[in-house]
Specification:
The chain contains seven helices and no strands. By secondary structure, it is mostly helical. Helix 1 packs parallel to helix 5 and helix 2 packs antiparallel against helix 4. 27% of the residues are buried.
């Protein structure tokens, strides 16, 4: 048995990984619902498999690109903000070290430490790494783990694509007279799975989350099915 236990995972890193996983599940959910609504509507109009495939694949591609671009822009903005805050903190530590120390002491006092303890902790952390101590306590940012816009964009595109493939495959493989019922069942099962995973990641009960996502997906398919029926008529 090793004398040195393995280090526990960093809480910040764990929370960030859970957030990415939750975002991936939600991206897959978007892919399922949007593509399901599209292909069910086109199929309800009596279109051939080739037309359904073309519409579904086009919707998949457009949705994946849209998700990737939107996530890239959003995360890039967040990263720029984080970098600006870090630069501002560096300047303040360089120009006003005493005021920054008092600010750090005040932050620890607000967390419940006595003045003496807060002062000792702030002074020791400042001596060890003033910048890391201040950005953690004031900003809640880890300078070594800033958000990556390219990773966010790629993750969103992949999760959306995986979700979108479920209704697309489910409506193309079965015979024509069964394609819509089978696609609906596949979508309901997939949405129930994403709702369950999302709830468990958030520490909530799955029941309500599953009901919400399944209801939304079924409603989307019902609306597009009605449109397809009218268009086909």
């Amino acid at each position: 048995m090793s004398e040195h236990p393995l280090p526990e995972p960093h809480l910040g890193s764990l929370a960030q990984r859970l957030n990415w996983l939750r975002a991936g599940v939600l991206g897959a959910n978007d892919g399922i619902v949007s593509t399901a609504g599209l292909v069910v509507g086109v199929a309800a109009a009596g279109s051939s498999a080739a037309v359904v495939f073309t519409a579904g694949f086009a919707g998949l591609a457009a949705g994946a690109v849209s998700m990737a671009v939107g996530e890239y822009v959003s995360v890039s903005t967040q990263r720029d903000t984080e970098r600006a805050l870090l630069d501002k903190e560096r300047v303040e530590l360089r120009d006003e070290p005493d005021a920054e120390l008092q600010e750090l002491i005040g932050l620890y006092e607000s967390k419940g430490l006595t003045t003496d303890t807060a002062t000792r902790v702030a002074e020791e952390l400042t001596e060890h790494d003033a910048f890391a101590a201040h950005v953690e306590a004031e900003l809640g940012i880890d300078p070594d783990e800033l958000t990556n816009p390219w990773l966010a964009a790629g993750s969103s595109a992949v999760s959306f694509t995986v979700g979108a493939l479920i209704p697309l495959v489910a409506i193309l493989v079965p015979p024509v007279h069964l394609r819509i019922p089978i696609a609906v069942v596949a979508v309901v099962v997939a949405l129930a799975a994403t709702g369950t995973i999302s709830a468990l990641l958030g520490g909530a009960r799955p029941g309500r989350a599953v009901l919400r996502v399944v209801t939304g997906g079924v409603l989307a398919m019902a609306v597009t099915y009605a449109i397809g029926q009218l268009w086909g008529s």
